[in-house]
Amino acid sequence: MSEEVQSTALRAAELRSERLRIFGVLCFVAVFVGVTIVRVFVIRTASSESPWIWSLLLAAAIAAYEGWTLRQVDTALKTSAILPRGFWVLSTIVETLIPAFALAFLVNSQIESAYRPLASPAILVFFIFIILSTLRLSPWISGLSGVVASVAYLCAALYLGWRP
Which ranges in the chain belong to alpha helices (H)? Predict the structure, then answer.
């Protein structure tokens, strides 16, 4: 039976690491928005059937959610409060479902349906969220992120018409 360490220094380090992770996600969203805007308005490589406006709306929703999460973490850091375990679990699940949502609903319709689960750039976002989950300093949260990502990917692929 393992005991959890109840150290204020460890909790503060966990929250500071979470802040770093949130800033990583926000930087990724900013790069995504920048690349999308350049593709659509500057070099015009996005097709007319590309769901770029929905992609930007999803990025705005992600940024708003991460902003809310950052506020919760900052408040916990200032007051030395403990965020409940449910906060970490819910946050991990929500963030890991984002690429699956993008894969299922925001893929280019010009790609043949059998290849959509593999040809979409949204697949690469799974890796970013799984890697950033390690900054939560908890092996079980990283494992949860990987399991949710794999199940969510399979569900999105099945939704797009992929059959094993």
Answer: 8-37, 52-79, 85-105, 116-119, 122-133, 139-159
> Which pair of tokens denotes residue 96?
């890991």
Look up residue 74 and give its amino acid. D
Closest CA to 124 of 142, 148, 98, 147: 98
CA torsion 85-68-121-115 (nearest 10°) is 60
- Length of the chain measured in residues: 164
Distance from C-alpha of 129 to C-alpha of 97, rounded to nearest angstrom = 10
- Helix (H, G, I), strand (E, B), or coil: what is residue 118? helix
Residues 6+ apart with CB under 8 A from 156: 100, 101, 103, 104, 117
Alpha-carbon radius of gyration of the chain = 18
Alpha-carbon gap, residue 14 to 21, rounded angstroms:
10
DSSP 110: T
Query: What confidence tens digit (pLDDT) does each residue in 102-157 have?
Result: 888 888 777 787 788 888 888 888 888 888 888 887 889 889 999 999 999 999 99
In whole angstroms, what is the distance from residue 58 CA to residue 99 CA? 10
